[in-house]
Specification:
The chain is α+β, with helices and mostly antiparallel strands. It contains 2 helices and 3 strands.
């Protein structure tokens, strides 16, 4: 009788458990990713002169300007405040994303 390749009786128990854990982690990461995409972060700059809200999909949802900061002779300052607020909001999203993934992977780093 010809011998089949592989392990007798299927996968060894440890390999089977490892596969189940990997599938569970993948499902948890998909749920976490969806939660992050639905998340919103609001940041202000210029002492509240500019307020920006971004979504987890890296889209700007809202932008509010304090009328006092709208100076037609200094548009550059307003542009800088908007850019600063947007960049800070996106940094905050990235930080939250990394924290969420670290919780799921238990600090396994680049394994997954």
């Amino acid at each position: 009788m010809a011998k089949r390749g592989g392990f007798p009786g299927g996968m060894p128990g440890n390999m089977n458990n490892l596969m189940k854990q990997a599938q569970r982690m993948q499902r948890q990461m998909e749920v976490a990713q969806k939660e992050l995409e639905e998340k919103e972060v609001t940041i202000t700059s210029g002492g509240g002169a500019v307020e920006i809200t971004v979504t987890g999909k890296h889209e700007i949802k809202a932008l509010k300007l304090n009328p006092e900061v709208v100076d037609p002779d200094d548009v550059e300052m307003l542009e800088d405040l908007i850019v600063a607020a947007a960049n800070e909001a996106f940094r905050k999203l990235e930080e939250e994303s990394q924290n969420q993934m670290a919780k799921l992977t238990g600090g396994m780093g680049g394994m997954f």
